[in-house]
Structures are given as structure tokens and as C-alpha cells.
Amino acid sequence: MLVIIGYVVVLFSVFGGFALAGGHLHSLLQPIELLMIGGAAGGAFLVGNNNKAIKATIKALPTLFQGSRYTKALYMELMALLFEILTKARKEGLMSIEGDIEEPGISPIFSKYPGVLGDHHLIEFMTDYMRLMVSGNMDAFQIENLMDNEIETHHHEGEVPVHVIAKMGEAMPAFGIVAAVMGVVHTMASVGIPPAELGILIANALVGTFLGILLAYGFVGPLASLLEQKLHESTKIYQCVKVTLLASLNGYAPALSIEFGRKVLFSTERPSFLELEEHIKQSKAAKL
Known about the structure:
Distance between the termini: 40 Å
């Protein structure tokens, strides 16, 4: 929603300011210039990226128009789930959670937290490392190193559409110049026409440069910045799971383990100690 609002503000500010200054808006309506800039950018997008990057970028675009799903409520649900599963493992032994992590979809514990269960990648991340904990064949340092490598891989994959869109934004002004040059060539080829018509052709040519810069800095470039912010948000939840499981693996009680996880969250989503404690108590009461 904010993306749409931002675009409206950009359009209103630029074109509204131009109109207030006495400009004629119809002179900026140059569909051919847009075709040249957009077509060249689209062609360069196909040339400069492999199938994986193209698919990742197309998949990421709809998320730009959606709000963040990484809210305080989701993190509280995640930490309540971790507390419950770690408490069970501490009381009944690690082998007691084997059934839960093998089939989380039908687990009585995981089923209580649909927000977390709906994230397939997060569930896979959690259950994979809980399975390693159950096996008992790896120490905390080995698991931490493996977690870091997986989180880094996730981050690198998420950076692909960020870089693709950023490169497209950087190319827009250049394609705008190309469109302007083509307009100048057309103008020079028509040098024998009356000055009034010649002036219109020159104005049309200059619109290409204007559109290229506007599209770059007002529309495409900000999308790359937004995607990068969303990537950092999606990475943080894995870091929360990581430090919680490692704290448990190092012998800390579940209540302290989830405190480790709470501390790594961004301040905008981090629940207070009392908020989290109350949420866990409510989850226990619901279980009873």
C-alpha cells in the first residue's frame, strides 16, 4: 500500500509542479519514449540474468506491495512454540520430540501455532536442526557453523532480485538518453520544417531523458531498497531460531533460551520480557 501511495506522491509532485509552473502536461505524454525506455530495460533484464535470477525477481515483485509478515505477534508465536518444544525435550528427553519434528503438520505442538507452521522454509530450518540435536552426533560449534552457512546462503539468494532491480534502476537514465538521442536524430532529419514544429520535436526528444531519470529514481530504484529491507527482516527470524536452539544446546533452560532469541530481534518487533512471559502463560493455559 505504501508503494502505491509513494508512487502517487511522486507523480503528483513532479507533474503537479510542472503544471503549476505553467507547463503543458500533454507535451510529456510520449508513449513512444516510454516504449523505448521500458523495452530496452526489459531486454537488458533478459540478457543480463539467468533463469534463476529472472524467476526470483518475478516472484519477489508481488511482495513489494504487501505489508511485512514479520510482526511482533509472529515472533511471540515463534518463541512460544520454541519454549514449548524445548520444555518437552528437557522434561521428557530429546527423543520425545522426534515425532513432532518429523511431521510438524500433524504435531499437537506445531499445530497450535499456524502462523509459524505456514512458513515452510522456517519450519524446515527449525526441524532440521532439532533433528541434528536429537541425533546427538554434532556439538554446538558444528551446528552453529552450519546454521551460519545456511543463513548466509538464504541471504545471498534473497539479494539476487535486489541486485537485479537495482541494476535496472541504474540503467534507466542511460536508456532515457538513448531515447532522447533518437529524438534528436529525428529532429535533425526534420530541420527543414517550420520552427514551431521543430521546437515540438526538440521538446519531445528531451522528454526521454526526463522519463529515464524519473523512472530510475522515482519508481524502480526505491523498489530495490524496499526489497533489501524485506530481506533483512526475513533473515532476522532465522537468527532468532538459531540463537534460541544454540542456547538450549548449551544447557540453558527454555525460559532463558527464548530470552536469547528475543534479544536479537529488531526493536520494532521485539516484545518486552513481560509481554512474552504473559503470552507463554496464555499458551500454557490454552493447552490445559
